[in-house]
């Protein structure tokens, strides 16, 4: 038996005449008759008694109708599911983001892009950048969003796409430097600064940029993440050199009620973000759609705050 035979058989069972069955299928009457005859030959059983223009099913045909109807309906459901998977309307999604974007920007995007699609199951977690890279290396997620921590993409475990953008200086809104459009490193000479922990590359690059400019890096606060530093800045305790998505998040969430403002750093290092994904875990259509959409979202957000973003795609996966 094949699908053509079963489809023709069901149509005949559910129609008053052979011509009606052919019309339902969009096929010619001889083609439907041939499909029925070939099915009967394959089974070694006459399924219908022919009385004039009518085909009267034998008792065994009713059993075959029930079974074939179930088979064809299941195949139709499979086809619909595959279409949903291809169109990103169903499936599962396992993603992670570094703290900062994971608090608001990343889940806001995920919830919006998934929309009213109840057939998508989501696992969304907040992890440090090293943890996200390890998850990608062990093929433990669909993709993750991290910052660049100095480790290049592995050609054997995971791949990465890179987005770079200008850094910003975060300061109290009534600070003297708030009158400037851009901030020079000399402007920060010996001013109290709140930075990420000393092991983080942004801390190290900030201190280096100040030293290279002949300035003193007066670090009075270090913190694991950028967003908690905003409270200290709004209280006038310090300034900070932050990644541009922190400026975006503060603008969107208004955590300090406008007490912190951001000015682009005029020169120096650019902050780099990475979208990492496994090599040996092929990406579903859903994951690819969400990943590419997030990249476009980040680029747009960074453009809106004047961070001059640029994108570097991943190299092709090397041949085994």
Would you give an account of this structure?
With 320 residues, the chain is an alpha/beta fold. It has three domains: 3-86, Orthogonal Bundle (Arc Repressor Mutant, subunit A), CATH 1.10.10.10; 91-165 and 271-312, 3-Layer(aba) Sandwich (D-Maltodextrin-Binding Protein, domain 2); 168-268, D-Maltodextrin-Binding Protein, domain 2. It contains ten helices and 14 strands. The chain has helices at 3-13, 18-25, 29-43, 59-86, 105-114, 129-137, 201-212, 229-234, 244-253, 285-304, and strands spanning 48-51, 54-57, 91-97, 120-126, 143-147, 158-166, 168-172, 182-183, 192-196, 218-223, 240-242, 260-265, 270-278, 310-312. A six-stranded mixed β-sheet has the order 4-3-5-13-6-14, with helices on both faces. Strands 8-12-7-11 form a four-stranded mixed β-sheet. Strand 1 (48-51) and strand 2 (54-57) form a beta hairpin. Helix 1 packs across helix 2 and helix 1 (3-13) packs across helix 4 (59-86). The longest helix is centred in the first third of the chain and has 28 residues, at 59-86. Residues 316-320 have low confidence and may be disordered.
Characteristic key phrases:
rod-shaped; Arc Repressor Mutant, subunit A; 320 residues; six-stranded mixed sheet; D-Maltodextrin-Binding Protein, domain 2; disordered C terminus; 23% strand; four-stranded mixed sheet; alpha/beta
- The radius of gyration over CA amounts to 31 Å
Ends distance: 41 Å
Number of strands: 14
Q: Could you state the order of secondary-structure elements as H and E?
A: HHHEEHEHEHEEEEEHEHEHEEHE
Proportion in helices: 40-55%
Identify the CATH homologous superfamily of the largest domain: Periplasmic binding protein-like II
What's the CATH topology name of the largest domain?
Answer: D-Maltodextrin-Binding Protein, domain 2
Anisotropy-based shape? rod-shaped
* Main beta-sheet annotation: 6 strands, mixed
Please give the order of strands in the largest beta sheet: 4-3-5-13-6-14
Please tell me the total number of domains: 3
Just name the CATH architecture of the largest domain. 3-Layer(aba) Sandwich
Low-confidence stretches are: 316-320
Structural class call reads alpha/beta
Query: Would you tell me the overall average pLDDT?
Result: 87
Strand content: 15-25%
- What's the number of helices? 10
CATH class descriptor of the largest domain? Alpha Beta
């Amino acid at each position: 038996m094949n699908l053509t035979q079963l489809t023709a058989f069901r149509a005949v069972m559910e129609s008053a005449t052979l011509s009606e069955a052919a019309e339902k299928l969009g096929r010619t009457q001889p083609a439907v008759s041939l499909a029925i005859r070939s099915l009967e030959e394959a089974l070694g059983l006459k399924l219908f008694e022919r009385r004039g223009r009518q085909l009267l099913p034998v008792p065994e045909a009713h059993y075959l109708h029930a079974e074939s109807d179930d088979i064809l309906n299941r195949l139709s459901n499979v086809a619909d599911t595959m279409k949903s998977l291809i169109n990103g309307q169903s499936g599962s999604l396992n993603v992670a983001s570094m703290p900062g974007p994971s608090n608001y920007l990343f889940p806001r995007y995920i919830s919006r892009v998934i929309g009213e699609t109840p057939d998508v199951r989501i696992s969304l977690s907040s992890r440090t950048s090293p943890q996200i890279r390890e998850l990608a290396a062990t093929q433990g997620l669909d993709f993750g969003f991290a910052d660049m921590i100095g480790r290049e993409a592995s050609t054997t475990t995971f791949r990465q796409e890179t987005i770079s953008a200008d850094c910003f200086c975060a300061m109290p809104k009534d600070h003297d430097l708030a009158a400037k459009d851009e901030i020079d490193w000399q402007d920060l000479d010996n001013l109290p600064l709140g930075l990420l922990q000393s092991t983080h590359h942004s801390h190290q690059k900030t201190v280096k940029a100040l030293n290279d400019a002949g300035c003193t890096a007066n670090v009075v606060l270090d913190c694991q993440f950028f967003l908690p530093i905003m409270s200290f800045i709004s209280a006038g305790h310090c300034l900070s050199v932050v990644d541009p998505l922190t400026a975006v998040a503060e603008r969107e969430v208004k955590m300090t009620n406008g007490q912190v403002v951001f000015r682009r750093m005029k020169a120096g290092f650019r902050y780099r973000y990475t979208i990492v994904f496994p090599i040996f875990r092929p990406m579903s259509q859903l994951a690819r759609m969400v990943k590419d959409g997030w990249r476009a979202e980040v680029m747009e957000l960074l453009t809106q705050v004047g961070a001059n973003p640029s994108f570097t795609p991943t190299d092709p996966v090397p041949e085994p």
